[in-house]
Amino acid sequence: IDLVDKFGKGFNGVGWGDQSRATNTVNERRGLIISISSTNGLFAGIGEVSPLTGVHPESLDDAKEEVMAIQRILSNSDFIANSLKCEEILALDGSLQRYIDALVLNINAHSQLNCNKLKPSVQSGLEMALISLASHTIRTPLPQALFQSQPEEKRLSNSLLLPINGLKTRKIIGRSLETHNGDIRSDISFPSMKVKVGHQEIEDDGKAVVESQRNELSKRASRVRADANRSWSMANALEFAKVLNELNDPTISTNLEYIEEPLEKDSQTKNWDLANQVRALESWSKESGIKYALDESLADAVLGHEGDFDELRDYLYNTLKDAKGCAAFVLKPSLLGLEKSMQLSRLAHNDLNIGAVFTSTFDSGVGLAFTGIIASLSDSQSNQKNSPLYPHGISTFTMLNGDTLTPSFQSYVSNDGFLNVAPLGRAIFGLGIDEIRDYIFTSDDVKDFEDTIYDVEEEFQAISSTSTTGREINVQVSLPLPFSDEIASSRFTDLPQQPRWSPWLNSVAYLEKGETEWTLNVRGVEFRWKAISKLLQNPKGITWESTSGLKNRGLVEFIKVSNDSCLMRVKMTLITPRMIALVFKTTGEFVKEFVENKLLKWSLESFRDVVKADLALERGDAELGDALFGAVEGRSNAIEATLSYQFEDKTSSD
Question: pLDDT, tens digit, for every residue of 328-339?
């Protein structure tokens, strides 16, 4: 996914350490989407593995190698995975790490992986997949599943509107480095803005921070924070505080939340220690009057710790219990892991009375979704009388020109900068790898299909293909029609009439803004989805794509052959819901063949006969019309009999 803004492709200074220097440019984000399913195939979870250079210690190639090694073992039919206790791992209290440790030991015993500790991005992605699998298994969307799995005394509130901060990053425009807000979506009035500082003149940094308070959209002052990425010496950090004071802005003292990592890492000491870094930061904060937040320094301490979390918690508590200038922990679940980030947030909120701010590493919508959901859980458990709540750093979607989620992550963010967590949780509920992929027509036979399917003397023709999991189905079919393309198109695109020739559809209804809502029933299970469509003129027809619910999209064309005949051609891609895929698997039928040879074949033939019957009745030929409707009714009864079989749910919560 490209990183772009209104000035073009790429951003400068994305990352930590040398990577955060303004001379370094990041043009794109690459990563992996992983999916884990239950043994019975009914339930699924997803995760994102996308290490960011300069933040993660591993490269994408390193992460991919580890992911593929794990995948080879888990997909082996002889491998028996450790039983997953869903409610336990959703507590995020250490149970998830214990499960992963046991799983890795099991994998090591069956392979040459020899991995004692997963790479951070792989650990994070695996955690995402496991907790979303657990939530799907207990049939509860992830935000609610996590909240309900916490001890009752920790459930202070379940706020599902999460404040997020905007980001002003660095950009080299021409020959000069500028701090700017050049994101794609500029219609959001964020409650707080984060400004990257430390790589231009200190006075320019100060002006950028002060100006970021002025919100042109809301016409009100925003809170603001800065991020120096450990780029300043003590002298420069104090100079920055002096510049802010000399700018004589009366609101900056109240609107400035904190500065992330204002001081450079002490490289003179052989063994760097967080305690020494905190002492220097406390000295700076006392003299400058500005609070600081721990990001890189906290990650260094956490990733470098070899013991269990209890030991880490005691170390961090003893290091920071007397600190007066620390405002917050900045937590990156993609680096630290979801569970450990949650444990650190509890330490911050409930023991140290400081904030916990969750941030992304320019992740796609999948990673952002999990970060947002965990952040919401963290806020719900904070001691709100003592510890502050800050907006969270997950606005980087404004700088990505694509997404792995459909609808995209940004569609769940309001214009006033709040993430609507509840519908986002429902959107990722039960998603697997097929639902995440950009589903396109992948058949190698497309060209041959298009070259050979125009013979109107032929009857129904079809080709199809499936993904490796069997759930993404690509079907292309055609049928000659004995009436004009204009008649065919006008009848077919009257969408509420669709159930007349597609009895597997219960209803089609028009909604606002050009959307339609569709419902169908397959063997006792009702499915709903919304779709947008567009009429075509040359050739006549219609395209559609679902916007929620059952994933599908397609194209229907009516290609003129003569004034009284045309060829109906349908291309469709759909993602089979897991419950349907399981039913067909256990009854010995193949979903692809069912869709191709029954649903579509019967529907196209029924459409032909319904229109022929309508035309016969319109010209007064009742005998032919009744005969054709009889044929349609018989075909409809056969379809309904196939779809009405009730199946038994044999799933469990383990």
Answer: 999 999 999 999
